[in-house]
Amino acid sequence: MNPIEQTGIKNIAVYARVSTANQEEEGTIETQLVEVREFARKAALNIIREYCDDGWSGDTLVRPALDSLRQDARSKMWDTILIYDPDRLARRYSYQELVMDELKEAGIDIKFVTVTSPSNPEEKILHGVRGLFAEYERAKIKERFRLGKQRKIKEGHIMVSQPLYGYSYTPKKDKVHGFYEINPEEARVVKMMFDWIANKGMTIRGVIKKLQEKGIKPRKSKRGVWSASTLTTILRNEAFIGKAHWRSSIAVIPKNPLKKERYRKTQKSSRIARPRDEWMSVDVPRIIDDDTFNDVRTKLSLNKNTQIGARHPYLLTGRIFCVCLKRRVGSGPQRGRYKYYVCCEKVASFPLLKKCNEKGLNAIHADNLVWERLSGILGSSDLLKAQITHESKESEMNRKYFKDDATVIGEEIRKLNEQIDRYNRAYGEGVFSIEQLREYVDPIRNRLVSLESDLRAANNHLLDVGETNFPSDEAIDLFASNFKKISKNLNFEQKREIVLNAVEKIVGNQSRLEIACNLILNQHVGYRTNHRNGWDNTQKVENLGKRIPFHFTIELPPPDYRNRPGSLNRFRRDVPNKLTAFPK
Ligand SMILES: [Zn+2]
Asked: Ligand 1 mean position to 512 CA, how many Å?
């Protein structure tokens, strides 16, 4: 029997959530927790765990704390969950029901501070009606707000929190609409930027550099420098020729997010354009004439196209890193001749001074040498078998390590449970009061919770390293001989798939690369990813057994700067070495 049940103390967990946007009406996470804790105290409930999603919208169920709550519910770490009101679980009634049903199935009791949790069919219907009504209210308010905003824009009223660069904003006052006025200093900068691109042939990068030299900073930026995307967005804004647009784009959930995160606070972080006839426009004071504006717009899109067209296929993109541990990326077209993997730190810190001084490494050499070694390994059954023998020994050692770990933790858990038993017996014999019992037992319970999670982790590791399902010798021979046959005739796309599949990480400088592989022997190599650089590694390929880790290093030939643009040798190749002619 569970010792805690004997004492009659009910162990519960609490869940709290507030969204960033609605803190005014919902209060902060702290105020919510205060209410919940007070409720628990009065009802003699013992809180052993608090799950908080601070700053999370209730429109999604994918929230970190809610996820671990649902996970823990299954392992029965507590038997009741206390929540301020059903809205904390989810905004949508159907989502609330989903989570509540799931918890009830796991045998968890759900309690709310503001409403009683439905216990019979009638109450459940009442609860549903209440939830649907709240949902309807919210939709109504949202729609009313949207229509009101639309009407105001139609009347020529400008509503923004941040005006466009080049303008100042005067919000609504008495009966006068909010409006834009030209901000003289910023408007001067805007005119300069348009002039540089339209008449001086500058690129966006050139403009960024020039602004930096002149000490002109954007309004808001952590680094205090202009970014190419901000600048491009600004330069395309038709407000400068007298028309400010609203509703020209719509927020959507990104298809190919740059970062693959499990939890996203902002779901709709990407924007797509709306059809032009749905836009709403308001007249604003003009800063730029039509000709200059259109000229710049054409030049910007021209720049963009030339860059995309000339991109060189880099074999190692997405897998290669600098020794400073930032990514290395294939350098731009640079007149189509010079291919380097350059450290991103340099790109990211532009136009400020770069912190990492590592030079770009020769992409042609790196691509060829890495491919040569990798295909050499994949085509040699001897090398693959030797690595598997080595790996098996290694996992045997790991297995022993985690097994020992699990034994030690298990022993400590047993001792703590004995201790709790002793306290319970003493309480039963009237040695001390219930308050004293809680004082003694609570810290032990907390320690137990953390030990149990350690034990789970150790057991999971054990399962991981326990898997010795390496491919058989026959499978390896077959794979290696097949690979040898096809490897000579692979095109770039196929090589790229194999690299993405086999290589985990390459770290290096100009002279040396360290390559970490995780080889998977598959009769046909396939790697599909949505990401533009193949960074997404979540795709599972049907495999013939455990992946084989493989590490190797490659020395790169010394760089040859003779023909690089800007190198003196390029112009003085035929000039005799003057040093020898120096007088003694
Ligand atoms: Zn670097």
From this structure: 14
CB 54 within 8 A of CB 29: yes
Give SS3 for 214: coil
Query: What's the 323 CA to ligand 1 centre distance in angstroms?
Result: 6
> What tens digit of pLDDT does each residue of 423-442 get?
888 888 888 888 888 888 88
Query: What are the residues whose beta carbons fall under 8 Å from the beta carbon of 530, sequence distance 6 or more?
Result: 255, 256, 536
The answer to whether residues 244 and 158 touch, using CB atoms and an 8 Å cutoff, is: yes
Ligand 1 centroid from CA 500, angstroms: 22
Nearest to 458 by CA among 496, 407, 507, 402: 402
Pick the CATH number of 3-117 from 2.60.40.10, 3.40.50.740, 3.50.50.60, 3.40.50.1390: 3.40.50.1390
Residue 309 has pLDDT above 70, yes or no: no
Q: How far is the CA of 85 from the centre of ligand 1 (A)?
A: 50
3-state SS, 20-87, equals CCCHHHHCCHHHHHHHHHHHHHHCCEEEEEEEEEECCCCCCCCCHHHHHHHHHHHCCCCCEEEECCHH
* 345 C-alpha to ligand 1 centroid (Å): 6
- In single-letter form, the type of residue at position 122 comes to E
Q: How far is the CA of 365 from the centre of ligand 1 (A)?
A: 19
Give the Å distance between the CA of 197 and the centre of ligand 1. Answer: 31
CA dist., res. 12 & res. 49, Å (int) = 7
What string of DSSP letters covers 126-149? HHHHHHHHHHHHHHHHHHHHHHHH
**pLDDT tens-digit readout, 134-191:** 788 888 888 888 888 888 888 878 877 788 999 998 888 877 788 889 999 999 999 9
Q: What is the pLDDT of residue 333?
A: 54
Domain boundaries, the chain: 3-117, 167-308, 381-464
**Backbone phi, psi, residue 204, to 5°:** -60, -45
For 491-507, letters b (16+ CB in 10 Å) and e give eeeebbbbbbbbbeebb
Q: Calculate how far, in angstroms, residue 326's C-alpha sits from the geometric centre of ligand 1.
A: 6
Q: How confident is the model at residue 394 (pLDDT cuts 50, 70, 90)?
A: confident
Q: Each residue of 39-60: b (16+ CB within 10 Å) or e?
A: bbeeeebbbbbbbbbeebbbeb
Q: What is the pLDDT of residues 509-556, one digit of tens each?
A: 999 999 999 887 654 444 444 444 444 444 444 444 567 888 999 998
Closest-CA residue to 167 (of 96, 244, 114, 67): 244
| Rounded Cα distance, 257 and 530, in Å | 9
Q: What CATH number does the domain located at 167-308 have?
A: 3.90.1750.20
Query: How far, in whole angstroms, is CA 460 from its chain's centroid?
Result: 25
Distance 55 CA to ligand 1 centre (A): 34
User: 215 C-alpha vs ligand 1 centroid, how far in Å?
Assistant: 26
Q: Residue length, the chain?
A: 584
Indicate the pairing of strand 10-18 with strand 80-83: parallel
How many angstroms separate the alpha carbon of residue 147 from the centre of ligand 1? 51
Q: Is the pLDDT reported for residue 351 higher than 50?
A: yes
